[in-house]
Amino acid sequence: MRDSRPQSLDTLFEDTAVAGKSPLQVIQQHAIALLKLNRTVLSLLPAQLHPWCRVANYRKQILVLEAGNASWMTRLRYEIPTLLSTLRSGILPSLSSIDIRINPSLMVKCDNNEQGCSKSSTKAFNNDNQERPTRRLTHESAKTLMILAENSPEKLKRRLERLAALAGEGTSTAQKKR
């Protein structure tokens, strides 16, 4: 971002007849182009890569793809020669290379089933209205915490004892903090 100085909002909302294209229109057109390119790239990739890969950007004749983790990135690298030749022949003749980056947010799991996971279902899984699984503290863990609390400073001792008192109860981030 070479020109990252503050700009007046008037310049963002200028009429297209006056300025040709406003910056917001340019951003919108770029976003629409990336969505179309993403659909095309996903149609060229094997089905198992679809939930774990997406187009991040296309700039200076370089297509930037995101992968969920290093293993999916490696799998995606095997597809680069085919992807490059197909995209160059039909859609992006000026494409010079493909860059792959890792984006861990693509690795959101849904129901521990990688094959059936789609981006729309991960969105529903992250919804705050969904019931979250409860976690339980075992009595053995509570005993270990009490032993640890005996030799701890006073402030830490109180917190460890409070935590040990939760043994057998369901603990969840959605519950009220004490």
Determine and state the CATH class of one domain: Alpha Beta
Overall pLDDT, averaged? 79
What is the total tally of β strands? Answer: 5
CATH architecture of one domain: 2-Layer Sandwich
**Silhouette:** elongated
**Secondary-structure class:** alpha+beta
Helix fraction bin: 40-55%
The succession of helices and strands, N to C, reads HHHEEHEHEHHE
Protein name: DUF721 domain-containing protein
Pfam families: DciA (PF05258)
InterPro entries: DciA-like (IPR007922)
Care to describe what's here?
This protein is an alpha+beta fold and 178 residues long. Among the domains are: 92 residues, GMP Synthetase, Chain A, domain 3; 31 residues, no CATH class. Helices cover 46% and strands 13% of the residues. The protein contains seven helices and five strands, in the order αααββαβαβααβ. A three-stranded mixed β-sheet has the order 1-2-3. A two-stranded antiparallel sheet has the order 4-5. The longest helix has 22 residues. The two termini are 46 Å apart. The C terminus is likely disordered.
